[in-house]
User: Fold 4-vinyl reductase 4VR domain-containing protein from Pseudoalteromonas peptidolytica F12-50-A1.
Amino acid sequence: MRGVVFRGLEELAIETIGMQEWDELLETYAPQGRVYVSPTAYPDEELFALAQGVASKLDKPLTEVLAIFGQSLFGFLAKKHVGISSKFSSFEELVVSIDSVIHMEVKKLYDEPNLPSITTTIENDKTIILKYKSNRKLCFCAEGLLHGAAQHYNRVLRIEHPQCMHEGADHCVLILHLD
Ligand code: HEM
Assistant:
């Protein structure tokens, strides 16, 4: 996973558990002297171990921490890549463009990024069906990113997750209900 994602986790960790505890996690789970540089790729296992470490320190399940992380990551990524995120005037427009525009632009900026496959179908003006597939199974993080995007556009969003890769499915199905 790219350094930019680790930096997003670091920002959230410093806010929630504090710098000292974050440094302790780095000492335990990252190679000595590790500094995360946005465009560089680092092992996924390192991100998962650090996220699990944050979850343990907060005494929350990993899935919950990944969702909170995703939510703050949206703002972090959107700020870092204003040129991409400012293209969309509504939540709906952004969501249907994740694969075809946002992550496509990411592919131009980063050398061989590891991105999920996301497809969307607009059911009606209040419902979007999103299919998520990735060998990282970061669907809870995706839910958080979607909540972050909804917050950005001042929308109230509820997500149903009736089919999940963590339960053996080939891809996750997220049903996005808008107010
Ligand atoms: C609601 C909107 C978005 C969703 C649901 C989403 C979903 C995801 C997920 C779940 C991942 C983790 C990788 C995986 O699952 O395999 C990811 C990675 C990433 N996304 Fe997005 N994303 C969104 C918006 C954005 C935006 C706005 C940007 C920046 C302009 C962005 C840039 C990236 C980057 C740089 C990575 C890491 C790629 C790598 O490590 O190689 N995403 N995205």
